[in-house]
Structure formats: structure tokens, C-alpha cells
Amino acid sequence: MNHTKKIGNSQIREDHKTKVLNYIRINNAVSRTDIYKSTNISKPTVTRVIEQLLEEGLVIEGGTAAGESDVGRRPVYVQINPSAYYCVGVNISKSAIQASIIDLSMNIIYKKTTSIKRINGVDDFKHIVLSCINEILGQVNNIDRSKILGIGIGVPGTVDYNKGTIMTFASKPDIVDVNLKDFIEEELKLQVFIDNNAKTRALGEYWYGYGIGYKNIIFVVCSEGIGSGIITDGNLLRGKNNVTGEFGQMIINVDGGFNSVEACCALGSVESSVKALLKQGNQSVLIDLAKGDIESIDYKLICKGAAKGDLLCIEQLKHAASILSIGLVNTIQIVNPEIIILSGELFDESEYFYELVKEYTRDRLLNILTQDTVFARRKVVDGLYEIGAATLIYKRFFQD
Predict the structure, then answer these.
(1) How far apart are CA 209 and CA 10, in angstroms?
(2) Complete DSSP assignment for 263-306
(3) Most confident segment among 68-82, 228-242, 314-328
(4) Nearest to 104 by CA among 399, 365, 393
(5) Number of C-beta neighbours around residue 260 at 10 A
(6) What is the pLDDT of residues 85-111, one digit of tens each?
(7) Distance between CA 16 and CA 47 in Å, rounded?
(8) Cys staple from 205: which of 116, 123, 209, 320, with CB 3.0 to 4.6 Å?
């Protein structure tokens, strides 16, 4: 009987510690008074937990609360100790690996990009990922290896999340059934979690990005392919086989025929459509910009043409934005998100395209309860892609 009570008390203490630590993580610099008033944990318990966290080095005293005045006596604030622990966040795209060492406050300490455009099969792929991680670990000799909690990896394709197996890899048909988790764990003796990279990015936004404060989020990435991660009531939507959120595979009626959103709106699709029109003899400033070499025309040049007022470029961007907005409207009506975060090269290269997608989507929303949906744009270079992958590790550390 007493033994059972001890276990219960121990669990309660751990729950208090977790709740306090997460409150500090979410709110940055906070006072002890802020914590006990906001968490409904007694003041003596908060004091005891803070002392324990300070002793363990998980938090430090100092910092300034947001909007704080310099007038009067300031309370002693506590905040997460960034150097208490680290992890590796890896974002893999169709063409490159971006790996970063990230501290407990999600600051990127060191970053490396490695091309995978010319990988040759599964073994080559596994060893390039391993080599990239090894290289960044070698750059931070001042960090004790015991302080590295693990490695989070985001991959474009279908992932068996529980096993850590890449079932399929977008645009690379020879990369199938790769148990990357077991391979990396065996080689580096660090915990590894792997997920689809649209899902890891959604997770990163929810924890550290534009999604902070929202419980229902849609993250859509539009680049070489189109994918999404969906968070409902604060939880990542996975479905039966972890393939929920295949936004790019949504089938819609386009010009009287059925096609997927990705087939119409991905980077290569927009480029191919423009090239086909030019080869048919349509006039465009792109011919001069590309010095007559139609095959060299890329999305960046198309955006440049649109900025110059070229009608062909403008119409093609409008067409792609219109189709993408149909997919967004369908998803919004089902999920009813508070915020939609749009990311990827299609938006990085063109503010105009981003505004078109927002405009078309808002115009097509029929339900008045969905028309207050917030839009945000995440630039690829912001670093949140790797941070999202690292969140796979930190989510377990913080037990949230």
C-alpha cells in the first residue's frame, strides 16, 4: 500500500517538473510567481522544482521578460539553459541533405549542406547521410557527446514512423525500404527518429514557429513536390499508415480532366507548362531573358518575367495558384485550421504567387467560420526545416 503511494507521489513530482519545464520553454524568461499562477502548482512546489532544474543545469537564472519595464524592482527570471543539451536535426530534400547541431533553445550551432543529386542506390544514400552527420558532430568538439540527445530526420516520401524505415523516397525510385534509423543508431550510438519532412516541418512550426499559440495548423510545402503536415488539437495527424496529409496527391478537376495538385503546381510542372507554350510559338519576354534557350528556363526566371509584366508568365502563375488554392480550400473545409503556413521555392521566389494563393483561397471559402484563417509564409532559408526534424527528439525530452 505504502509502495503504491510512493510510486504515485513520484509520478506527481515528475508531472510537476515536466509542467514547469514546458511552461518555461514556451514562455522563455519567466518568474517563479508567473509559473505558480499560470500552472496552478503551489508556490512551494514551484520553488522546489526550480531548484531541482537549476541543480540539473536545465534552466538558468537571468533574462528579461517580453515587454518588461526598467522601472521598479525586477523579479528573478528563469529560462531554459540552451547549452544543457543538443541534438542533430536533418532535413533531406530531393537534392540535398541539410544537417544542423541545435541547442535546447533551438539555436542552430553548426550547419552543413550536402548534395544528393548523384546518389547511387540505398547503400550510397545511407553512407552519405551518415557522413554528413559525422562531419557536423566533428565540428563541435567542445560539446560533450553525452549532451547530444539524438538525431531527428525529415525525409521526402513515405516513412514507417514506428520502425524508422523509408518506404519510398520522392523522385528516387531506387531508394526504397531503407531502415535508416537502425543503421544510424548502430553506427553512432545515438537515438534516431525519422518522419516525413512535411510532418517534421509542421511540428517545428507548432513548437517554435508561426504555429505557436495555435492548436490546428496546416503546413504546406511547394517545391519539387507538394506535401503537407497537419496538426489538429495539438497533435500531428498521422492516420493508419502515417500517410495522412498527402496534399499533393489530392485529385481535382483541371480543364475538364482529373489530375493531382502536385502534377499541376509543383516546380517542374510550372516550368514544363511554360516551356510547352513557348515551343508552340507563344510570345514572351522569357525568350530574351533566356537568350533563346527555352530549355534553360526555370521557375526563378518565370517569376522574373511576371515581375516585368509578361502576360504568359503571369497567366501561368495565376493558373498554378488557382489550382493550389482549390486544394487548400478542400483541406480547410475538412480540417478547419486556425493558421495555414505556406513554404517552399514557389513562395520563396515570388511574393506575387503567395498573394495570389491567399486571395484565391479566401475568395473560394464558402463557410464564414473558415474565412478568418490566418496565412503565413515560411522561407526555406529560415532554418526551421532542420529545427522541425530536431523537434522529433526534443518532443520526447520535454514529454509534451
Answers:
(1) 34
(2) HHHSHHHHHHHHHHHHHTT---THHHHTTT-GGG--HHHHHHHH
(3) 314-328
(4) 393
(5) 20
(6) 999 999 998 889 999 999 999 999 999
(7) 11
(8) 209
Q: Write the burial class of residue 6 (CB in 10 Å: 0-12 exposed, 13-18 middle, 19+ buried).
A: exposed
pLDDT band at 73 (very low <50, low <70, confident <90, very high): low
Q: What are the helix (H) ranges across the chain? A: 2-27, 32-39, 43-56, 121-138, 180-188, 197-208, 261-265, 267-279, 286-289, 299-307, 311-335, 345-348, 351-364, 384-397
Asked if residue 102 lies in contact with residue 393, where contact means CB atoms within 8 angstroms, the answer is no
Decide if 274 contacts 302 (C-beta within 8 A): yes
In angstroms, the Cα distances linking 114 to 5, 12, 34, 129, 248 are 53, 46, 44, 9, 26
Q: In 3D, which of 195, 193, 201, 183 has the Cα closest to residue 128?
A: 183
- pLDDT tens column, 9-48: 677 788 899 999 999 998 888 999 999 999 989 999 999 9
Q: What is the pLDDT of residue 4?
A: 38
Q: For residue 305, what pLDDT is reported? A: 97
Q: What is the distance between the alpha carbons of residues 375 and 256, in angstroms, rounded to a whole number? A: 30
Total length of the chain:
400
User: In this structure, are residues 245 and 227 in contact, taking their beta carbons and an 8 Å threshold?
Assistant: yes
pLDDT, average across residues 163-185: 91
CB 171 within 8 A of CB 96: no
Q: Which amino acid is at 135?
A: E
Whether the predicted model's global pTM rises above the 0.85 cut: yes
Q: What is the pLDDT of residue 180?
A: 95
- What the block records as the C-alpha cell of 266 is 509543383
Q: What is the distance between the alpha carbons of residues 13 and 103, in angstroms, rounded to a whole number?
A: 26
374-397 pLDDT tens trace = 999 998 877 888 999 999 999 999
Mean pLDDT across 195-220: 94
Average pLDDT, the chain: 90
Q: Give dist(CA 59, CA 78) in Å, integer.
A: 6
Distance of alpha carbon 223 from alpha carbon 275, whole angstroms = 18
* Cα dihedral 159, 169, 87, 24 in deg (nearest 10): -60
DSSP 219-270: EEEESSSEEEEEEETTEE---TTS-TT-GGG-EEEETTEEEEHHHHHSHHHH
